[in-house]
Amino acid sequence: MASERKVVFLGTGDFAVPALEALVQDGYPVRAVYTQPDRPAGRGRMSRLSPVKQAAERLGLSVRQPETLRGAEAIGVLRVLEPDVLVLAAYGLLLPRGFLAVPPWGGLNIHPSLLPRHRGPSPITWALLEGDEETGVTIFRMDAGMDTGPILAQRSTGVRPGETAGALTERLAQIGAELVREVLPRWLAREMEPVPQREAAASYSRLL
Known about the structure:
Elements: E1 7-11, H1 17-25, E2 30-34, E3 39-41, E4 46-48, H2 51-58, E5 63-64, H3 72-81, E6 85-89, H4 97-100, E7 107-111, H5 123-129, E8 134-141, E9 151-158, H6 165-188
Parallel strand pairs: 1-2, 1-6, 2-5, 6-7
Antiparallel strand pairs: 3-4, 7-8, 8-9
């Protein structure tokens, strides 16, 4: 039976789409989907919808595209939605402490690396650039830092010879969707205890 706990989802890129679809398939009430504002792209500078916005519209979900999540107005809007938990994947903005404090179960981030390795905005590309033989997905409880929150679960996978960033993103997106399906009900049932990251092992990916 699906949980009645209300979810607000935050995501922008392709990596986030399977996780959003999984939450809907599992029957979670997704009160809203936050995604980055439409940006001009291509030679014609036409406005381009993010992959998550396209998925949300296809799924009939409410979409919000604020320029920032900082300030009383953004927090007030979130409070009206009354989420029990936030789920984030490839969103592109840090969530302020006040925003994270609204839902009683906080915010979970689906991150495509084995944290604390490759924190930051480009973990998949940097795993390939640095010749990692193994990578994976981490789900952690968000804090105000850059991918620094305590870990709830990880799943690893080998990097295949000659694998491109696009192919690896697609594989990790499916792993992330599977993992959030397992983690979220246990987190909402208070059956999981986050484990702090090992700061001494942390590394950061830079935006490319």
